[in-house]
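note to self: dont lose this again. the chain is below, predicted strucutre after it. 705 aa total, dont forget to put it in the shared folder this time
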Amino acid sequence: MSLPDKTTIEAKAHLLPILRAAMRAIENSQHSQGEALLDGLLRQEPDFADALHLKGYIALQRGDLASARTWVERAIAADFHFETYHLTLGHIQLAAGERDAAQRSFGVAIVLNKKSPDGYIGLAHVFMAEGALDAAIGALFTAFNGNEKHPETNYMLGYALLSKGDVKQALGYLGRAYQFVPDNVRYRAGFARALREVRLKRPDPKLVAATLPLLGAPGVEPRDLAPVIESAICLDPQFTALAKLDAMPAESIAAAMKAPQFPDPARNKVFAVWLSHGLVGMPALERRLTALRRGALHLAVHEPQALQGRERLLALLAIRAFQAEYVDSVSATEKDLLTRLGATLADAEPAAAAASFAVYAAYEPLYRRSDAARLATAVWPAAYADLKRIQLDEPLRERQLAATIPTLLPIEDDTSRTVQEMYEESPFPRWHQPILGTPLTVDVRLRAALPLQTIPPYAISKPQVLVAGCGTGLHAILAATSYHEAGVLAIDLSRTSLAYARRKADELGIRNIEFAQADILKLGTIARRFDVIESFGVLHHLRDPAAGLAQLVTLLKPHGYMMLGLYSELGRRDVVLARALIARHGYGDSPDEVRRFRTDLPCLDAALAARLSKSSAFYALSDFRDLVFHRQEHRYTPQQLGTLIDDAGLEFLGFEFTSPKVLPQYRERFPNDPKAVDLGNWAQMERDNPDLFANCYRFWLRRRG
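---
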């Protein structure tokens, strides 16, 4: 947004303070306040072009394309020569699927101001919507000329290059956009997505320094940062020097840890920050941590005084073990030592024995100890404050919250009860860092998710959103922060998971989520209706997914949208192999059995173990249990998805991808399907790229007709 030109300023100077106040309100997403100010301006000056344009801008942000077009066309009629108006009209036309008209509007903006990059950026949006990446990149390089520090040009150029698969160049442009405006969620998330493709082969302190602040930042998926951060850790000489510990007996590791020259990895900032978030996704890093844990346990039992000076390392080992839900196997010797250590801690105070408590917490969670209440009220040294919070304060708070979660519908189906029991034992997923969205209108959110689809100009204000199967709240919190002025109902089978979700939402100050216990198979009986329903990774665990989907359809408003995530038969091929091994060798699904299978897997099928270990789900017990031990699972092919969707009376709108490369590749392969909705084509695309839907099919639907 820009202020009026000089001539307009001179003629209407007395109105400028109100205009500026309206602009500030709009920039702060206070659209109602901004609109009220603009209405006051227009009562005084009905043809005030800037006020008309800003009214159109607000309508566009709300997804009301018809009103937006009317206001902006009035602004252009009042002042044709201000290029910003034509830019906004172009974006309205593009959102309505009118690409030729949008291209003309952006062309007019370029004629009016050749030095501005915005018209070329608009053209790039048109070209990208048409799948013409080379034309988009050409337009952006034109915009880039003389505007090298323009953040949006850098971002769009990086995004287009990433869509082409040119990760190295894309990373440079996306990094600059993020550097120029680090608070912009789009720039931050775009840079993080590009980092997903980067694994360091040599130290790069500058890139690592730019990556670390992204941890915990809104819009960033933590796992996108894993390749850069974990490869940086493995390149650190101090960390590589510890490789010899992997195969050592505990007493030898303990002796090494006592030595003054011991290369303590906790002194490495990257290692410390990464483990403080509980994130580990590499076998080498896991082996190193379990070796250090063995050595620390030996010292805690035999020479506890030798643990002095290792506070940070011990706290990190315990935090990581807790976040991974103690997925690592424990030898008989370790179990014996842990029993002895536990006995010595029966009456110990954390102020004097915090190091030993931390070692214990690296094997067993503190909140499950019989004296957990005593430990929670005790005074702990500052070095162990995070450990106390994560292993005592937060879990004990969840126990209190679980009793307050309302039951919306009883859990009566036998299969649902079986699944409920599993998630009461292992809430899924246990997460540390939220993924927060940017509040958008439903229409704008859908256009971002489905760039090839034409979303009708139907404005949905204050949308009601249902998250069906919210687990521990990660998805519900993302939804609550992704839709402007939304009210969210998040339901799940597991009261334990819901308590975790409630605690997280409370900590983040998110007040627009209502959590309740309910079974999807009965959900259609409630009186409420929703503008958006999201159910990711849930229906395929029901006894009858089609019956569950039918319940959700009854809750969807006529103009509403639905997002589902369902397992792919091909994408889960390694899971199928693992489940066959589990059945053949008679493994149960208790936590101990999950650990035993995970330990045995390299001997049972080394190649399968290597492939599964590339998934982040391999490194946390509830994730791994959910991956290969789930008690109820259905999988689909694209054709079977089509049948499920048709039988439910729904229309397939398209798959949503986090990677910008997929849709351009599809468009190049299948140019006769410009909206990318032919599931037969997607079946061929998946056969050629078997890992395309390794996590889930993620797709959007609406009522047919």
